[in-house]
Write a structure and sequence with these properties.
Two copies of one chain form a homodimer. Chain A is mostly helical. Chain A is built from eight helices and no strands. The structure holds a DNA duplex (30 and 30 nucleotides).
DNA sequence: ATAAAAATCGACACCGTGTAGACTTTTTTC
DNA sequence: GAAAAAAGTCTACACGGTGTCGATTTTTAT
């Protein structure tokens, strides 16, 4: 975790396999875009990465494992970005900042994010990854709601429950919009912002 | 469509195949609950319905077709229920009535509804079925919002766009809750009601 | 009763998966 | 820089699920 372990000499202490691994994940992402999860075969991925099926199984035990690794790589990115987001005291500003960031994430990683959502049910490790990601968002939304004066508590009309519903609204709305176009994503963002602000009592 | 064609004699003019078809769909639903879509095999369904794989292919061309038929049967039910819902003039009442109905639907058909959502991407006919269903809900929500004074128009903070976002919020929230318990569904309903009412301007 | 239509079966060919064992390349160690 | 170990790669195979075909039996209509 802390690591990086800058190679003692000045040349790459990078295993050949590390390069292959990245090639596999990149190919997987490309194929996901071109053919979709179902149609994509282990042979396809191997071929795209310039090796045979047999060799691929040296790295990953199944198609699911490959995709899980891809999702993990992407989701790592999301967490990174969340951590780096500037804190602000004004709830209104927090909402627009959060949604702007979300638009960026979906623009860059929409495909993998949609795949993660689709596979959450069937591939448990992906489900956990995505649940954790959602929890981060929910926590962030909860914080904003509370700062805006929505009471904390377990009741269905208090911050945590509302944050969960708003999170699902955003997830699903962006999920659909990201299949359409950048503009759709932009509008989706505006709509979500409006509902979020209204339900936080921040709109007269 | 109008039909029924009450059998001339007093015996069933019901093809043997009609019974089998129902048996297949019922078995499919049971297996979906027990093993999930991926794990369920055409052989399993056939066996459960008391026939061989070969015979099943006489009725349906693939596992996807079977599930599509099951979704169609269920969705038919949803449309039916929507049509029979009493019209009311008070928006507040309309919201609670709509959500009460939604809770009932998810209680009864949660499994198939979740399956339909999961397969919307990969099985186009199911995608169409579900899109159409969603459109009905969106139209209903739009109507309530407009009656509550939210302006009509294509802008992201006007009725149609908001209705879409609210629909996705409800879908996703209920999707998750229906995996938990009846109580979760009940609370989900309360939270959605609160956000819906607030964003319609119906909560002081 | 008989002919047509509907339903069922078993066998087969195909395709994707995952594993095993032999072989080659890269890295480490002395 | 040679030998040993580790990492990487390949081909071949066995398995399981799919969808199709032609033969056969059962049901329905006349």
């Amino acid at each position: 975790m802390p690591g990086h372990q800058p190679p003692r000499g000045r040349r790459p202490a990078e295993r050949k396999g590390d390069v292959r691994e990245r090639a596999i994940l990149d190919t997987c992402e490309a194929l996901l875009a071109r053919k979709g999860y179902e149609a994509m075969t282990v042979g396809d991925i191997a071929q795209g990465a310039g090796i045979t099926r047999g060799a691929l199984y040296f790295y990953y035990g199944s198609k699911q494992e490959v995709v899980t690794a891809l999702v993990a790589r992407t989701v790592e990115h999301l967490w990174e970005r969340s951590r780096l987001t500037a804190r602000t005291d004004d709830p209104r500003e927090a909402v627009t900042a959060a949604l702007r960031r979300t638009v960026e994430l979906w623009n860059e990683h929409g495909l993998v994010m949609r795949t993660a959502i689709d596979l959450s049910l069937t591939v448990p490790p992906i489900g956990e990854l995505w649940d954790h990601t959602a929890d981060l968002f929910i926590a962030a939304i909860t914080a904003v709601l509370e700062r805006a004066g929505v009471p904390t508590g377990a009741a269905p009309d208090q911050a945590p429950a509302m944050a969960r519903a708003l999170c699902w609204m955003i997830e699903r709305t962006f999920y659909h919009a990201s299949q359409e176009s950048r503009e759709a994503l932009q509008e989706a963002s505006a709509t979500c912002a409006h509902i979020w602000l209204t339900s936080a009592g921040l709109v007269a």
